TrEMBL record:
Gene: dinG
Obligatory cofactor(s): [4Fe-4S] cluster
Official protein name in the record: 3'-5' exonuclease DinG
Keyword hit for ATP-binding: yes
Major enzyme class: hydrolase
One GO MF term: DNA helicase activity
Organism: Paenibacillus shirakamiensis
Binding-site positions, ATP: 288-295
């Protein structure tokens, strides 16, 4: 086969746009690139500035280039008898067909392949499928992104890489892919058929490196063979070693392994503090700023303690990201430097693991709701099974449709067959559970911690010592899990998984099986199913009606981001129910009663089926159905609990989004206070809980956290240690904080014209002085939008790109990557950018904080907490709003300096930090940057002066 890899640069992506450059790389039968053709093309219209900015192609470049017809004379012969390949090939193909038509040629009728499809299938774990990022990931030369010849060559090299990967697939994997695409008349299907034919001709069918089971090729093996790190007979490796001696050995090994290793004073202090808390059975609050190396600060004492005393230590993170970082980076390093074998296991919530039984069923039955996307996702997962040892969805780059697919094949407790499942010994969830059971240290996340509490401690192995990283999120996560949050689609998904139409849904599957069952009671059960289906449809109608009525109660909120579920918000009070609430409870009553009937009928039928000897053998289908009926029961109870509005200590509220209306509805019922529950579940029960984060103290004091987390009693009994570690960075030298003291102030979340104009002017001037490389943090999306267009206009003349969250994309990772890859850019972000974004080095030189990050006081939870404080005769603003905002402000400030080499400027445009009585709490909580305030006009000269002094 001969492939032609095509790429066009154009004046835009509309059909009226024109080609300005072509690149074509020819891959010959022997899979070598034997020719790269490239030419500029003179268009009939001018090149828009943003295209020049993107591609670097100017009017001068195309002025003397051949016109379209002349270029096509050279291009068309190269397309003879080839398979056309492109990255997002539909774009280039449409321009090709239009060019052929305009130049009087017949359309291209050959086969077309998209490298995007191949990358998704063959490299399911790539973080991004963008051409330049994939090239970087594969270590390929791609010097001039968005230039057609460079893009075509990079795409050709990537395509060859995919072909190599296909070649390395086990034959069974290829057969599975070929079967999967067989139902489709597609060029991709044709390709995998041809690849299978080639593979079957080969003599050496190597089967090493894989496990073969039930017609799947897997990387994973039986988890029952996984043993503890040390056998029980061995003497304890720490028997005669105290913590200091152990640490001396570790440091020696670290300096031998890492050429740039240097001891960090703060990290040593942290290790000592954590060890002290473990030894003395105390709780510890420890603030460790960026650069401390806090992961090793708590991991090493945890490993030492768990091995020495032979009791497990549990470690919990807020984000899966940090869990992954510990898995990918810290644990492998420690495995090499700790002088004895130990085991650290990662254990996540069950829904993160693939259920192989459900996946097998879905593939074999071709149970796909959107065929093209689902077939691609299934293909991706067939290849992934040959690569994954964990079956953890975080390894997969799934896209939106993939996420819907995942929901139908994820592991769930209610539909688990346990030991009677044919896949039990290969099961990813049970493997993770087994590994956690034999590990010394288990790394989980806050969500799983609370799910375990709610499940009566049945999920996690038992533990007496707990380390909570990112502990400033503990209270919020506790509220979510100890309360209730349900979406409109939670109910809809359960209903449609039971019954979507006569061919789709587990009840339809059961009905089809019963029709061919020899059991004499089969017909009776078919009529039970036929009586349940109209009830399910009725529940869906009433749930839609109830969601519409709930959504209609909400006043429009004007300051939220699109895609931000807080666009509409309404708190519901137990004492003052909205008028017409009876209409809503009537709907809920019908849902409650009808679901009761469905669940009773369904469960009785399943029990009869299980007892029947008529040879009805689909145990997995019965388990799935039983699980779905249990889901319906818990959803029914949640809706009732919400609609009753009867608990004074619970905050009830609803949220929705203007775009999707009642389809975006979420209902919440969250305890106002979780401190009592945290105390009962953790601080009273566990010997030692260590809480760490870069932001726990407010104005150098831990009082706020002690009160919020329920540590007051333990503190009074001298069971709480606190430690504020010194920063490893020299903030005085590395960071300058500037406050323009005459800056206009703003009321609410929207700026007036004077404020917005002054802000745009100041941000623009500062961005020019720092050559872009600026992150601007907003507290309101409305204000971000007000600033975006005028700032973009102002900076485009200086070659600086403006990237806006929610305008260019809502995805934080994508935006951050784009910001890092573009030399001169300004990134505008709201809520999710205040923390967890890591942009070290030169990509970020300045950080602008537009407003102090106070939570909206009218958010239902904040409102309820404030009311409670008022009842206790306390000032909610000083006790709640200020501490919360200070912690968020410290998180935002922490985006700037991420290493000892980083230097940068922070501009705070909110003059309340100088003028108000509470401003000092913000300033005193920072880790000691140089602070200056001045008139706005003096700010940019001062920034330039400071930056140039720092480069000397």
């Amino acid at each position: 086969m001969k492939y032609a890899v095509l790429d066009f640069e154009t004046t835009g992506n509309q059909s009226s746009d024109e080609i300005i450059q072509v690149g074509l790389a020819i891959i010959d039968h022997d899979l070598t690139i034997n020719k790269v053709y490239s030419s500029y093309v003179k268009p009939g219209l001018s090149i828009p500035p943003f295209i020049t900015q993107l591609t670097g192609i100017t009017e001068e470049d195309v002025a003397s280039a051949p016109v379209l017809d002349e270029m096509m004379v050279e291009l068309v012969p190269l397309l003879d008898d080839v398979v056309l390949v492109g990255h997002n090939v539909a774009f280039d193909f449409n321009f090709l067909q239009s060019a052929l038509d305009r130049s009087g040629y017949l359309p291209f009728t050959g086969r077309i392949l998209d490298t995007m499809d191949f990358l998704k299938i063959m490299f399911p774990s790539l973080p991004s499928y963008q051409l330049s990022l994939v090239s970087g990931e594969f270590g390929l030369q791609h010097d001039r992104p968005h230039q057609a010849d460079s893009d075509a060559l990079a795409t050709a090299l990537i395509f060859l890489k995919c072909l190599e990967e296909i070649d390395a697939l086990p034959l069974l994997g290829l057969q599975r892919l070929s079967d999967l695409f067989a139902g489709e008349d597609s060029d991709l299907g044709w390709f995998f058929d041809a690849a299978l034919e080639e593979a079957e001709k080969k003599a050496d069918q190597s089967i090493e490196g894989f496990t073969y089971y039930r017609q799947f090729a897997l990387k994973t093996e039986d988890w029952m063979d996984i043993m503890p790190a040390r056998s029980i007979e061995d003497e304890n490796p720490l028997k005669d070693l105290n913590f200091e001696q152990f640490m001396d050995q570790v440091r020696l090994n670290l300096s031998a392994k890492l050429s740039h290793y240097e001891e960090r004073e703060a990290q040593n202090m942290m290790q000592t503090e954590v060890m002290k808390a473990f030894d003395e059975d105390k709780h510890l609050l420890i603030e460790a700023g960026t650069g401390t190396g806090k992961s090793l600060g708590y991991l090493l004492p945890s490993i030492y303690h768990s091995v020495k005393s032979e009791e497990k230590v549990m470690i919990s993170t807020h984000t899966i990201n940090l869990q992954e970082q510990l898995r990918e980076r810290d644990i492998p390093l420690l495995t090499e430097v700790v002088p004895f074998p130990f085991r650290a296991a990662i254990f996540k919530g069950r829904q993160h693991y693939l259920c192989l039984r459900k996946f097998e069923h879905k593939i074999n039955k071709r149970d796909f709701s959107s065929p093209r996307e689902d077939v691609l996702t299934a293909a991706q997962m067939i290849v992934w099974l040959t690569q994954t040892e964990t079956g953890d969805d975080e390894e997969l780059n799934q896209g939106n449709k993939g996420l819907e697919f995942w929901e139908t094949v994820a592991s769930e407790s209610d539909s688990c067959l346990g030991r009677s499942c044919p896949w039990f010994r290969k099961c990813y969830y049970h493997k993770a559970k087994h590994e956690a059971g034999i590990a010394d240290v288990v790394i989980t996340n806050h969500s799983k911690l609370f799910t375990d509490v709610k499940a009566g401690h049945q999920l996690l192995p038992s533990y007496e010592r707990l380390v909570i990283d990112e502990a400033h999120h503990l209270e919020e996560v506790a509220g979510k899990h100890l309360g209730m949050n349900m979406k409109y689609f939670t109910v809809v998904h359960t209903l449609t998984r039971l019954y979507k139409d006569s061919r789709t849904g587990q009840l339809s599957n059961l009905r089809m099986q019963l029709q061919s069952s020899p059991s004499e009671k089969a017909q009776e059960w078919v009529s039970v199913i036929d009586s349940i289906i109209p009830d399910l449809i009725e529940v869906k109608e009433h749930w839609d009606r109830l969601s519409d009525l709930l959504f209609a109660l909400m006043p429009e909120r004007s300051d939220a981001a699109p895609g931000d579920p807080g666009q509409f918000v309404l708190r519901l009070h137990p004492t003052k129910k909205p008028k017409n609430w009876e209409d809503l409870t009537d709907q809920e009553n019908v849902i409650f009663m009808t679901l009761g009937t469905i669940i009773r009928k369904g469960e009785r039928m399943l029990n009869e089926l299980k007892d029947d000897d008529g040879g009805f053998g689909s145990e997995s289908l019965m388990t799935d159905l039983s699980g779905l009926f249990k889901d319906l029961a818990s959803e029914r109870d949640h809706i009732r609990m919400f609609m009753k509005l009867e608990n004074e200590d619970t905050v009830y509220w609803i949220e929705g989004n203007g775009h999707y209306r009642s389809r975006s509805l979420q209902i919440f019922a969250v305890p106002v206070e979780v401190s009592e529950q945290l105390k009962a579940y953790f601080f009273d029960k566990k010997k030692s809980v260590v809480m760490t984060s870069a932001t726990l103290a407010v104005d150098k004091s831990f009082q706020y956290m002690i009160e919020q987390l329920g540590l007051k009693e333990a503190f009074e009994q001298d069971r709480v240690l606190t430690s504020l570690l010194p920063s490893p960075f020299n903030y005085r030298e590395q960071a300058l904080l500037v406050i323009p003291r005459d800056f206009p102030s703003v009321k609410g979340s929207v700026g007036d014209d004077h404020f917005v104009n002054t802000l745009v002017q100041s941000l623009g001037n500062a961005a020019i002085a720092t050559h872009g490389r600026m992150l601007v943090l907003f507290t309101s999306y409305r204000m971000l939008k007000q600033v975006y267009e005028p700032l973009k206009d102002m900076l485009s003349a200086n070659g600086i790109t403006v990237i806006g969250q929610g305008v260019d994309s809502g995805n934080r990772t994508k935006l951050t990557r784009r910001f890092q890859s573009q030399q001169a850019s300004v990134l505008l972000g709201t809520n999710s950018f205040w923390e967890g974004v890591d942009i070290p080095g030169d990509a970020l030189t300045s950080l602008a904080i537009v407003r102090l990050p106070f939570q909206p006081p009218n958010h239902p939870l904040i409102e309820a907490k404030s009311e409670k404080l008022q009842q206790q005769k306390k000032n909610p603003f000083m006790k709640l709003s200020v501490p919360q905002a200070v912690i968020r402000f410290k998180q935002g400030f922490g985006r700037l300096v991420r290493s000892s080499q980083d230097r940068g400027i922070v501009i705070v445009y909110d003059t309340r930090i100088l003028d108000s009585y509470y401003g000092k709490y913000f300033l005193y909580s920072l880790p000691g940057p140089k602070m200056e305030h001045m008139p706005t006009e003096q700010m940019v000269p001062r920034i330039s002066e400071w930056l140039s002094a720092s480069q000397v």
